[in-house]
Structure formats: C-alpha cells, structure tokens
Write a structure and sequence with these properties.
Layout (H helix, E strand, L loop, with lengths): L13 E5 L4 H14 L3 E4 L15 E5 L6 E3 L5 E5 L4 H9 L3 E2 L11 H4 L8 H4 L6 E8 L4 E5 L4 H10 L4 E9 L1 E2 L4 E10 L3 H12 L8 E10 L3 E13 L3 H13 L4 E8 L3 H4 L15 E9 L4 H17 L7 E6 L3 H4 L15 E9 L3 H20 L19 H5 L3 H14 L14
Parallel strand pairs: 1-3, 2-3
Antiparallel strand pairs: 4-5, 5-9, 6-10, 7-8, 7-9, 11-13, 11-14, 12-13, 12-16, 15-17, 16-17
Helix pairs in contact: 5-13, 6-9, 9-11
The protein binds flavin-adenine dinucleotide (FAD).
Length: 445
C-alpha cells in the first residue's frame, strides 16, 4: 500500500496519492496543491518518524519512488540519482561498477530522506555524511517552480538544504559523489553480553572510539534489548562491530570484547553489499519492514559513552519493559560511526550543525499502536533523553533531525549559533514563506 508508513505512530492523512514518473509531474502536482491550498508530502521509503508528519490532513502524497534512476558519469566520479533512490539500491548498483559512496546504514532508507538532514552510515569516516557528497540538486520549490541548487546556483539554498533540506523543496534528482571501493572485504562480529558486563563493555567502547578518532571503516552499533533466551527479565547488550577489512585486520578491534565473555559471539566476512543484512539492517530484516507497530525515537548527540548514565538508562529500560511488556521490542541504541570524513568538512559550510558530536544515542520505543501507550512512550522517552543528556555535562542537547520526535527546539535541531538560525529563518521566509514544508523538523519563524 502506497500510504502505509513505516511507523504506525505516524498518522498522516492522505486524500490522494500521486506517483510522478518525471520531475515535471512533481512540479505539476505542487502547482495544483499551491493553487488550491492543499497540503502535500513527498514520501519515498516512508521511514520518517517525526510526529509532525501526522499533521498532514486531507493531503496529497507525492510518492516519489519511481524517480529512482541512477546514471554514473563518464569520469566515474559522480552519479546522477533520482530523488526516490534508496540505500540498498544504490549500494548494489554501484558495487557492479566497483564503486561505493556514503549512504545510510540501513538498507531500506532513502538517499534524500536521511541526506537532507545528515545521513549517517558506514562510509562516513572515508567520505563524510550523505549531505557532504551532494554536488547539486534539482528541486521543486513550494510554488511548483523547478530550480537547480548548487555551489553556483542558489548557493544560499544549497547551504540550507544540506542539513535542513526537508524545509524547502522536493529533490527530484541530484548529482552525487561516488568513489572506487577502498576495500573489498567487510567483517561483521556480533556479540551478546549480559548486563553485569555493562561498565567494562563501555570502557572498551570508549577506548575504541578514542574520543572521535575511531579507526576509519569501523562502525560499532550497540543496543540494549530483551532476549528471553538469555534472560526473561534483564536486557542484554548487543554489539555489532563492522569493519572494512578482513577478520585478521579486525581482530585487534574485537578481541578485547571477546575477552569480556559474551554469551554469544558470531562473525561473518562479506562483500560490502552484504554488510547491512549481516548486521540485521538489510531490506529483508525486521527493522526494515513497514510494521503495524508504533516507533518513537528520543535522540541525543554525545562525545563519549558516559558509563554512569548508561547504567541508569539500562535500569530505566529494564524497569520500563518489566512494568510495560507491550514495549518489549524497544531498544536503546548507541551508534558509533567513524568520523574523519565528516569532521574534515567545515561546520559552517552546511546547515548540519552537530559535527562536534561523536556518537548518536537514542531511546527507541516500539509498541502496539494504541493512543494510551503514546503517553507512556513519551513519559519514558523524555526521561531517558534527560538522563542521556545529563551524561554530557556542559553540553547543550543536540538532536539528530532525522530521529527527532518534533518537540525539540530549533536550537536542538539546527544548532545554537545565532547566525545559523537567522540564516535558516531567512531562507524559510524566502523559499517557503507559507510553510508548505512544515511536516518534518520545521523552521518556524
Ligand atoms: C529503520 C530505520 C533505519 C534508519 N537508518 C538510518 C541510517 O542508517 N542513517 C541515517 O542517517 N538515518 C537513518 N534513519 C533515519 C532516517 O534518516 C529518517 O527516517 C529518514 O527520514 C528516512 O527517509 P525515507 O525516505 O526512508 O522516509 P520518508 O518518510 O519517505 O521521508 C522522510 C522525510 O523526507 C522527505 N523526503 C524524502 N525524500 C525526499 C526528496 N527526494 N526530496 C525532499 N524531501 C524528501 C519526506 O517528505 C519526509 O518528510 C533510519 C530510520 C529508520 C526508521
């Protein structure tokens, strides 16, 4: 179903679905919407979780999945991609030519959905965020006009769309940097630990992360989750360690964790096209299915793993699940990507404000779609977020736009430097004065 969204907590209401075959169809639809003042929303992979998406009422869904062509440029250094392309498609297409690029880590997410707000993934250490690789974009603006946005064409918007892009237009296609694949073999180690190992576990992760200088090509993804086979009452700690290299090259990275005594330890060596599935985030895996479950995320950007607060979060999570078994598919996520490529970019050069962060932490709630449970989710989510934030003494709350739940301040989403917000507000006034793009981390006046 075109109108089925990934999270049942997102309750966007569409009166009609338009499936554009070419960019001009998007423009014609938006001109119609503009003339009759009908709300509209671009939907690609439908993974957006912002609760403001539920404010679309009697709207037009512009389902852009057919704008999914990919064409590699003759020089092999870029590709023209449709606004409806997505991670698994791009990874597989480029692999056939020995190429790779920055994408989200999960196989199912779009290129532009994540990319307009950041785009975190496994090649971030090499090439930066998704938005760092956008050369230009063909965009339909709120009034239906079609423009090209780049360093030399509407450069003000080029700055703003790389970080706050959901606010300004629909990207129908974009030229995107691609690269020769730096490695052929990837190693993925999965380990499961009992909760009593928590302190030693995060000590090791802090050593590995080395305050933002985690080896290029290394991604660690940790979750607290329930695993009844290990314990019916206490969460386990799951580590996914993914490395661009062979098992022997990865051995010094994962050996200290093995010494800690996981209850489960398995590994595989795969080509890059197999990494997402090997990590449980491939298109065929549970997390990628449009579900009949509600999902809500409460994210916090961090510098290091705060061991004291992580123990508090573990206890809160355990209590929440034991008191509210409907939440037993929930997780606490700790995402640790390599950062060198992302940090090499001048923070002022794009609207993405959180380049100082090293880690993305989030309390991720999954539960049956009942209104009564939304209140419980928010109660635990906000509490967890305040604990995670307290683990970052002296730092403001930084929120990843693509995980935001819609109650955040503009500073939390787009940065605390006054010039950033002034610039974004001016852009909003110039390109979307009537707030037609206000359903995803909107820049309000
Ligand atoms: C299972 C899962 C895995 C995730 N993995 C990652 C990850 O690895 N890395 C990461 O950084 N984030 C990740 N995210 C967060 C992700 O960035 C956001 O959920 C993102 O909004 C998803 O984009 P989409 O195309 O899938 O969803 P959609 O709901 O289709 O789009 C999300 C928003 O982007 C807008 N949009 C989409 N395409 C365009 C376009 N071409 N032009 C203009 N606007 C557009 C939509 O209008 C909507 O407002 C993940 C989320 C989930 C639920």
């Amino acid at each position: 179903m075109f109108t089925t969204l990934w999270s049942a907590a997102v309750d966007a209401n569409f009166a009609v679905v338009v499936v554009p075959g070419i960019a001009e169809d998007v423009a014609a639809t938006m001109k119609y919407a503009d003339r009759y003042n009908v709300p509209f929303l671009a939907v690609n992979r439908a993974h957006g979780t912002a609760s403001a998406l539920s404010n679309v009422y009697n709207g037009i869904e512009i389902y852009i999945h057919a704008l999914n062509s990919i064409e590699i440029a003759e020089n092999g250094e870029s590709a023209l991609m449709g606004g409806g392309t997505y991670q698994d498609q791009v990874v597989n297409y480029l692999a056939a030519y020995g190429k790779v690029t920055s994408t989200g880590a999960c196989g199912c997410v779009g290129m532009m959905g994540p990319g307009l707000g950041g785009g975190f993934g496994r090649f971030q250490g090499y090439f930066g965020l998704v938005l760092d690789n956008i050369i230009d974009m063909n965009v339909v603006l709120a009034d239906g006009s079609m423009v090209t946005v780049s360093e030399s064409s509407k450069s003000d918007l080029y700055w703003g769309m790389r970080g706050a892009g959901h606010n300004f237009g629909i990207v129908t296609s974009f030229n995107y940097k691609i690269y020769d694949q730096p490695v052929v073999t990837w190693f993925v180690e999965t380990m499961i630990f009992t909760g009593d190992k928590l302190e030693k576990f995060f000590e090791l992760l802090n050593i590995l992360g080395a305050n933002g200088t985690q080896p290029v090509g290394l991604t660690t993804y940790t979750v607290f989750a329930m695993s009844p086979e290990v314990s019916p009452t206490e969460p386990v700690i799951v580590l996914l360690l993914e490395y661009a290299g062979t098992e022997s090259e990865a051995e010094p990275l994962y050996a200290p964790f093995l010494s800690l005594g996981p209850v489960v330890a398995t590994n595989v060596t795969v080509p890059y096209t197999g990494v997402a599935h090997a990590s449980g985030s491939g298109v065929e895996d549970f997390v990628c299915q449009n579900s009949d479950l509600s999902w809500k995320l409460y994210p916090v950007g961090a510098l290091v793993y705060n061991i004291t607060t992580n123990r508090q979060i573990y206890s809160l999570f355990s209590k929440m699940i034991n008191d509210n078994p409907e939440f037993n598919n929930s997780v606490v996520q700790f995402e640790g990507y390599s950062l060198q490529g992302m940090k090499a970019v001048d923070p002022a050069s794009t609207a993405y404000a959180h380049r100082a962060d090293n880690l993305l932490l989030s309390y991720a709630l999954v539960y049956p779609p009942k209104k009564s449970l939304d209140a419980i989710a928010n109660k635990y989510g906000y509490h967890a977020r305040s604990i995670l934030h307290a683990g970052e003494p002296g730092r403001p709350l930084n929120t990843y736009v693509n995980y935001a739940s819609s109650d955040e301040t503009l500073e939390e989403l787009y940065g605390y430097e006054p010039w950033r917000l002034a610039r974004l507000r001016a852009l909003k006034q110039k390109y979307d004065p009537q707030g037609k793009f206000d359903f995803y981390a909107p820049i309000n006046p």
